[in-house]
Structures are given as structure tokens and as C-alpha cells.
Write a structure and sequence with these properties.
Blueprint (H helix, E strand, L loop, with lengths): L18 H7 L7 H10 L1 H6 L4 H7 L2 H8 L2 H19 L3 H12 L30 E4 L15 H16 L3 E6 L7 E4 L5 E4 L11 E2 L10 E4 L5 E11 L2 E7 L7 H4 L10 H26 L6 E5 L5 H12 L4 H10 L1 E4 L10 E3 H6 L12 H8 L10 E3 H8 L2 E4 L2 H10 L15 E2 L6 H4 L2 H6 L1 H4 L4 H29 L19 E6 L15 H8 L6 E6 L7 H14 L8 E4 L4 H10 L2 E4 L11 H6 L4 E5 L2 H6 L5 E4 L9 H25 L8 H14 L5 H22 L2 H17 L4 E10 L12 E9 L8 E10 L5 E11 L8 E9 L6 E9 L18 H5 L7
Parallel strand pairs: 1-2, 1-9, 2-8, 9-10, 10-13, 13-14, 15-16, 15-18, 16-17, 18-19, 19-20
Antiparallel strand pairs: 3-4, 5-7, 6-7, 7-8, 11-12, 21-22, 22-25, 23-24, 23-26, 24-25
Length: about 900
């Protein structure tokens, strides 16, 4: 019979075993081998059945076994050592605390890379002295991939967020995570007999997860309220996971106070229609800030100074913080400036289609007097997200656009992606070249203790340079052999789910060979990742798989979004090829790709394959995780591989991404290039053995990957960059822009915007010094510039007049530009114009050009493009410039 209600009964551990509870509840066990080994020794069979989840394990261990362990002195010594190690990890100083101490000794850091006070600036704009490092940082993300025991992720975005929290914990960075708890997680994947993806949504009981509920001081669960259209309430409870030193707060709407529809808001990750997604993102952003306030009030944790929005889904957190300041007496403009100052926005998508966009009317209906944030006019909210730029959709509310307008600092997740993002969002800063758009980049990294095989971890990067070739090759074979066993076990389970009987599955015992070149390909299955590019020429692929001397074998895994039938067809196409008896021992598809599978897959592969459409892979971290285990990369030059590729680390797949090439031709060309690389370079190098029977050149590449590439791809490097380049400047801005300073800056911007239509460059003169025959310019001469500028009633301290000079291309576009400020020489003339002058040194040969521009300037601006205003010469003014060398 089916139970009418389900709940969990937690075990009461004997007193000597009580530290097991704390070890199980802190997710540090997920990346700490000694703690996992301790739990495995409690009950090895139970550990396997629980999927390596200590909470589930402790709930199933027989009482007799617990009683025995409570008397086992050897076990208790190990338990004490593990508990003491966790205590030291949580309380001891780490990298961040060292930085705080060092900055304290060195004195306060500057607020911005601009003068503290400009001439005539009011005293209110003087920033306070500060150490520069934030006391706390709130990190918002719609998904977090911490461990398979807490399945709240779908793919790279969530895994990146999980690695970010873990690395922050290891470094001692005072981060706080905020997300949602999805009752069904993402989904579990299986296959039908004909290879079609099937989705399953198991119910996740929070009481069976490594979570605790946030409660008031009287023991009542905390409730976070939101208001839906018509005044309907939406309540959420708050669950807390402890990720090492980092608290992670997860909001859950499945509470009895809610109606059925409201209870389903947090049912599935990326499920439902537009309104469902909007409600999830309102709960994440608005509810997330309220959960943070409740947590800090109850625990005494410092309030965050910096708010980091990981992709646009959490953008509404900025609106809630504006609402808080308005309720405290600020006006909207001042509150907006104050909130922007401490906000960092990270974009993860290089294509507009990857961004959440909502109908304008849908958003408007959920805000206002009878809905959420009644203190803010709906039109102001809409203005933050509308695509009011050339090529934008006038009736769509864009979450990434809102994230950029609510965040003073923004970044992409690789150098190439930063460049793509500046081009994609350049319309928000009209008049500025894409390279000047204020979006930087911090290349993603991965958490080595999570993704590195224990055997590799024990050796450590320093030892790889001294490890003999035979030992390194034997390590790689051991990892490959373990993968073969894992694949056979998972493949057998998959075929049983597909309806196969035991008698017809004997062939699985011969699937894969631990001595054959093994290639991995595992990721989500959107079309741009091209799961089936390897199938473009199936006959040629078969030849590679079945080569008599240099065979290859491929392990593939990945999930298509439940609503993406195109992605499901790609999965089915791959599965049907893998089902062919001729190749099924050489190519396998494993369903239900997740963290547990990935941790076995990366170490066991020799080559990691990645063939997206360039430049649509923002970063792509799976190849990084493989590299940490000595796996070589075979990838299109996209994302992180474009940045760090070297021939010592793997191979670059040539791309055919010219505008004149259609999709079919492009895929044919790139697939042929992939086959050529495998046949002519990758496989021969793997099988080319010396007199000692070892592939010396291959082992050298493995060694270089481990010692040189490995340190670059670490999440610790990534988080340190966030601290130094984004979090610390954001904290300084937050402290500088108190409400008084924010109000002054907002008033200044309003005045500047009102006057800007009358700002103009009226006349430009240029004279060579010394004069040259025929007016020709020579290297070392100087161009004396005189520019008349109309300021429209603004003060010269409000603007900067610049000469922008450099090489010019065939279209007269200035490249590799330098910026030279011009100085006012006299007061205004009768027409209110001012004269500006500056010498421009001609210090390079070849085609050269210049232009003049006027920008607003203020000591509290973080970037010249921040106001989005620029004035350049009119055609008549340009014609008077007099000199343009070619």
C-alpha cells in the first residue's frame, strides 16, 4: 500500500559517535577523502547503496553496528582526528584572512582608480577610508552543484557555482550562497528501448538531505513572504547547507501555508512556463535577500557588503535592496546608485537566446501596489530590463540587461566570452566601441579536490615532474581500467531499464578495453554543443573505432532539456549508433549524467572531446576537470581552450566559422578535421611506443598538462581573481557610496543627462609642429589640437575632453587607441563654448587617425562609459580638423 504521508526518522547516535552528525552535515566531506573513507568504514555496503551520502548512510546503519563502533577504539581515534581536522579547517586563518591582515598593515586601499575628490566636488563625495576587502559577500545562483547527494543542478552553471563556494571556503573568503531548493531537482534520465530520452522526477525529502531548517529563536521555522498579484501570499521556508565555511541558503515554497500553485513554485529546476520561471526568479532574488537578512539577524553573521549575481536569474535581488533603502527614506535614484555600487554581475551566455526574457505585461502584473515591491513604480522596474537599444525587442524584459543595469561591475567567464559579451551588450552603451564596454572577464576554474581522482591528489602537482614515465603510465592505465568497470556496470543497468533480459546482455562484459585510447564527451545537449558531430561520417567513425592497430573508444553522456525535442533527437541518434552490434563495444552512451558519473569519467579518459560552435561556449569547464587528471583536450578553440591552448596540452580542432559557409558545409568541414586529427595525430601518438613499451611523447603531454595547465584551471585562482578584481573594488564602492554620496551622484547624473543634448564638439583644428613640407607628418612630430566644445551649461569639471588616436584600418576605424585628455585654455566665449588644447605626439608610423570626444566625469564613476553618454564631432567639425595622415 502507498503511504499517505512521508517523513524521515533520524537516528540517535551513541554519545561517542555524535561527531559523525557534524561531519555528515558539513558538505566538506564531499571533497575530503579522509572523511569519506571514515564513513565508508562505518558500513561499506551501506555506503555503496547510499551513493556515498553520509546522511542516508547514518539513517540506515543497524543499531547493533553503531553500538559496536561506539566501543571500537581504532574507529573512535579516526573519528576524533576527522572531527578535529574539520574544526581546524573551519576556524583557522586562510588566504583571505592573510590578505586582510596584510592590507591592515599596508593601510587603506583607494576607493576607485580616480582621484578621491575632484575640484569643486562636495564634501559628501569624499569616500571613507577602508581596508578594501568585504566583510561578507552574497552569491546568488539558480542552481548549485555541490555533491550528488544534494541534486540541485542541471549543468555547468550549477557546477561552477558549487566549485565557487568550495574554493571560497578553502580560501577563507566570507561568502554566503543563496539559491532555491527544488523538490524534484532537475530530472533523472533513462532511455526507452528505441533510445528516446525518458524523464523521471523523484521527490527529494529535505529531511533526508544534508540540510537544516532556519528557525526563529523560539524554534518556529522562518517564513519568507512574497506578495503575488491580487495580494495573494507566497511563503517560503529556508534550508541551510554548510559548504565547509560557507553557508548556503535554499528557499522552498512547498509549505502548508501556500495554495497548490504557490507550493509548486520550487518544484523543478528550469521547469514550467514563463510565469512559473518569473516566480522562481522573484523568489530567488527578492526572497533570497529577505532570507539573508533573517539569517544574519538570527546568527549574528555580518551583513553582505557585496552581492554577486551569477547569471540574470537572480537579478531581482537588486530591486529588493532598492526597496529596503526606499523604505528607509531614500529616493529611487539614490537607492539605485547605492545598490549598483556593491553589485557584481556575471553573464554566462554568449547568445541572446540563452537569456531569460519575459513579456513586459507579465512582469508589470507582478509588481506594484497589489503585488510585490509596492514602494517602487512598475515603470521604473520595467525600465531596468527593457531592451531599449537598436535591435532590442521593445516588449521583452531581459534579465541580463537588468543585471547589467543593477550591477556596477560585470564580467564574462573567459577572455573570449568577455569579448563576445562586450559586443553583444554594446547597445547599452551607445557611441562606445565594444572594447570600451565595461564588461571584463574572469575565466572559470574547477575545484581540484572535487574533480581529481584520489590517486592523482595523493601525488600532487609537484611530484608529477619527478614521477617516472612507467609510474605515470601505470597510473593512467589504473584510472582507465576503473572507468571500464564503471561503464560496464552503468551500461548493464541502463539496458535493464530499457527492457533487456539478462540473457541478452553478455556482450557488455566485453565493452571497452583498458588498453585502448579512450575519449570522453559529456555535457548538456543543446544544439550548439553538437553531440552528434562525431557521427557526421559514420563509416569513417567506424573505421577509427575498429582500426586493427590504433582503435579508439568513446564514452558519451548528456541530458537534453525536457522541453527540447531537438536535443532528444540528437541523443536518440547517438544511442542508435551506439546500439549497433558492430561498434557497441567501442562507443557507449551512459544515461543520467551527473556529478557521481562525472567524477569517475574525467580521470579515466585519455582525451576529452569538445566541439561546440565557436564562439558559443562561454567557458566550458569539463575539459578543465579532465585536465586535472592528466587527460588531454581535443577541442574547438572556444571558451577557456581558446585562452590556454598549447600543443603540449592537446589539439585544436580547426573551425570553419566564416560568414559565407552554411551550417551543413561548416559541420562537414569541422567533422572531417576532427577525424583527421584522431587518425593522423592523436591515435598515432598514443600508440607510438618506444623500446621500453611506453608512449613517451604522450606521457610528456600528460606530464605537462598536470604540471603546467592544471594550476591555471583551478577554482582557487578564479576566486582570488574575483576577490581582487571585483569583490574588493565593489566593497570600496559600497562604502564610498553611502546614501548621501549616492544621492549626490544621482543628482549629478540627472543634471548631466538633462544638459547633454546641448553638449557638442563645434570645431576641431590640428597643426603639425614643426611644419613639414606639403603638410606630410613624420615620426616624432607633434599634432597641436585646438577644439571648441559647447558644454550646454555644464561646468568643465563635469566633463573630460579627449583625443582618441591610433592606427586606422581600411574603414578609418581607430584600432589600438590611446586617449589624450585636452585642457581648457580660457573661459567661455559669447556663445558659451570653451576652447580645449593638447599636443598629440605622432609616435608610430603607418596609417594614423584621431577623433575628439567629450565624456562626463565624476570621482565616483567606476568607468567612463558608466553614464552611457558621449559627444563626438559633427561632420562639419570633422571637416575642419585639417590633418589625417595615411
Amino acid at each position: 500500500m502507498k503511504a499517505i504521508r512521508r517523513f524521515s526518522v533520524r537516528p540517535v547516535l551513541p554519545e561517542p559517535l555524535r561527531p559523525l552528525n557534524r561531519l555528515a552535515r558539513n558538505l566538506r566531506w564531499s571533497w575530503h577523502p579522509e572523511t569519506r573513507e571514515l564513513f565508508e568504514s562505518v558500513d561499506p555496503e551501506g555506503w555503496r547503496e547510499s551513493g556515498g551520502d553520509p546522511v542516508r548512510l547514518l539513517g540506515a546503519v543497524p543499531l547493533s553496528r553503531l553500538a559496536d563502533l561506539a566501543e571500537d577504539r581504532s574507529f573512535l581515534r579516526r573519528l576524533t582526528a576527522a572531527a578535529d581536522d574539520l574544526h581546524d579547517y573551519l576556524t583557522g586563518p586562510r588566504w583571505y584572512q592573510g590578505r586582510v591582515a596584510a592590507e591592515g598593515r599596508a593601510g587603506p586601499a583607494p576607493v576607485e582608480s580616480v582621484p578621491a575628490v575632484s575640484p569643486g566636488a562636495p564634501v559628501s563625495s569624499v569616500p571613507p577610508a577602508s581596508s578594501g576587502l568585504p566583510t561578507a559577500i552574497a552569491y546568488f545562483s539558480p542552481e548549485f552543484g555541490i555533491t550528488a547527494a544534494l541534486p540541485q543542478y542541471s549543468g555547468g552553471l550549477g557546477i561552477l557555482a558549487g566549485d565557487h563556494l568550495k574554493a571560497a571556503s578553502d580560501l577563507g573568503v566570507p561568502l554566503m550562497g543563496v539559491g532555491l531548493l527544488y523538490r524534484h531537482g532537475y530530472f533523472r534520465q533513462s532511455l526507452s528501448r528505441d533510445g528516446w530520452q525518458q524523464e523521471h522526477y523523484p521527490v527529494l525529502d529535505p529531511d533526508e538531505l544534508p540540510l537544516s531548517q532556519l528557525c526563529e529563536t523560539d524554534g518556529r521555522p522562518v517564513r519568507i513572504p512574497l506578495t503575488l498579484p491580487g495580494g495573494r501570499p507566497l511563503h517560503a521556508r529556508v534550508w541551510q547547507a554548510q559548504v565547509g565555511r560557507v553557508p548556503l541558503l535554499l528557499l522552498d515554497s512547498d509549505v502548508e501555508e501556500n495554495g497548490h500553485g504557490e507550493r509548486e513554485v520550487t518544484d523543478r529546476l528550469y521547469g514550467g512556463g514563463s510565469e512559473h520561471r518569473l516566480l522562481q526568479e522573484m523568489l530567488l532574488g527578492i526572497g533570497g535577500v529577505r532570507a539573508l537578512r533573517a539569517y544574519c539577524g538570527l546568527t549574528g553573521h555580518p551583513e553582505p557588503e557585496v552581492f554577486h549575481t551569477n547569471e540574470g536569474h537572480a537579478g531581482f535581488q537588486g530591486l529588493e535592496r532598492i526597496r529596503e533603502l526606499i523604505d528607509g527614506g531614500a529616493d529611487f535614484e539614490a537607492a539605485h546608485e547605492a545598490v549598483r555600487a556593491g553589485t557584481v554581475f556575471t553573464t554566462h551566455t554568449p547568445v541572446p537566446a540563452g537569456i531569460d526574457r519575459f513579456d513586459r505585461e507579465l512582469v508589470a502584473r507582478h509588481f506594484g501596489d497589489d503585488a510585490e515591491l509596492p514602494g517602487i513604480e512598475a515603470e521604473r522596474i520595467l525600465a531596468l530590463g527593457m531592451e531599449t537599444y537598436p535591435g532590442g525587442e521593445p516588449n521583452l524584459f531581459n534579465m541580463a540587461v537588468m543585471g547589467l543595469r543593477l550591477g556596477r561591475r560585470a564580467n564574462g567567464v573567459s577572455t573570449l566570452h568577455g569579448r563576445v559579451s562586450r559586443e553583444m551588450f554594446a547597445g547599452l552603451w551607445p557611441g562606445f566601441d565594444p572594447e570600451e564596454v565595461p564588461i571584463t572577464s574572469v575565466t572559470n576554474g574547477v575545484h581540484a579536490p572535487t574533480w581529481t581522482a584520489p590517486e592523482v591528489t595523493r601525488l600532487g602537482a609537484r611530484q608529477f615532474g619527478h614521477l617516472g614515465d612507467s609510474e605515470l603510465w601505470e597510473l593512467r592505465r589504473t584510472l582507465r581500467k576503473r572507468l571500464v568497470a564503471e561503464v560496464r556496470q552503468r551500461l548493464y543497468a541502463s539496458w535493464r531499464q530499457r527492457g533487456a533480459g539478462t540473457a541478452e546482455l553478455g556482450w557488455i562484459d566485453g565493452v571497452l578495453d583498458p588498453d585502448v585510447l579512450t575519449i570522453g564527451f559529456a555535457r548538456r545537449v543543446p544544439s550548439y554543443k553538437r553531440l552528434t558531430l562525431m557521427l557526421r561520417d559514420q563509416d569513417r567513425l567506424m573505421e577509427l573505432l575498429l582500426h586493427p592497430e590504433r582503435p579508439i573508444q568513446i564514452v558519451v553522456a548528456g541530458k537534453a532539456h525536457p522541453a527540447d525535442d531537438g536535443g532528444k533527437r540528437l541523443v536518440q541518434e547517438l544511442v542508435r549508433f551506439a546500439d549497433d552490434p558492430r561498434v557497441r563495444h567501442r562507443l557507449v552512451f551512459l544515461p543520467d549524467y551527473g556529478m557521481g558519473m562525472a567524477q569517475k569519467l574525467y580521470p579515466g579518459c585519455d582525451v576529452w572531446l569538445n566541439n561546440p560552435l565557436r564562439p558559443l561556449e562561454a567557458c566550458g569547464t569539463s575539459g578543465m576537470k579532465a585536465a586535472l587528471n592528466g587527460c588531454l583536450n581535443l577541442s574547438v578553440l572556444d571558451g577557456w581552450w581558446d585562452e590556454w591552448y598549447e600543443p603540449d596540452f592537446g589539439w585544436a580542432i580547426p573551425t570553419a566559422d566564416g560568414d559565407a559557409i552554411d551550417e551543413t558545409r561548416r559541420d562537414d568541414l569541422e567533422a572531417a578535421a576532427l577525424y583527421d586529427l584522431l587518425e593522423q595525430r592523436v591515435a598515432p601518438r598514443f600508440y607510438d611506443r618506444g623500446l621500453d613499451g611506453l608512449p613517451g611523447r604522450w606521457i610528456a603531454m600528460v606530464r605537462r598538462t598536470l604540471t603546467t595547465l592544471g594550476p591555471k584551471v583551478l577554482a582557487g585562482r578564479m576566486v582570488r581573481e574575483y576577490v581582487e578584481r571585483l569583490y574588493a573594488p565593489a566593497a570600496r564602492s559600497h562604502r564610498a557610496l553611502n546614501l548621501e554620496a549616492a544621492a549626490e551622484l544621482a543628482t549629478w547624473k540627472t543634471r548631466i543627462r538633462a544638459a547633454w543634448p546641448d553638449v557638442a564638439v563645434d570645431h576641431v583644428e590640428a597643426h603639425l609642429t614643426p611644419p613639414a613640407p606639403g603638410g606630410a607628418a613624420e615620426l616624432g612630430s607633434t599634432l597641436s589640437l585646438r577644439v571648441r566644445v559647447r558644454l550646454g551649461g555644464l561646468d568643465p569639471a563635469d566633463v573630460e575632453v579627449q583625443a582618441v588616436a591610433g592606427r586606422v584600418d581600411d574603414t578609418d576605424r581607430i584600432t589600438d587607441a590611446t586617449h589624450v585628455p585636452l585642457k581648457p585654455t580660457a573661459g567661455p566665449d559669447l556663445e558659451g563654448s570653451r576652447l580645449y588644447e593638447a599636443p598629440l605626439a605622432l609616435n608610430r608610423t603607418g596609417p594614423f587617425g584621431y577623433t575628439i570626444r567629450v565624456l562626463p566625469t565624476h570621482p565616483l564613476l567606476s568607468h567612463p562609459a558608466e553614464p552611457g553618454l558621449i559627444a563626438v564631432p559633427s561632420e562639419s567639425a570633422s571637416e575642419a580638423a585639417g590633418v589625417l595622415m595615411r
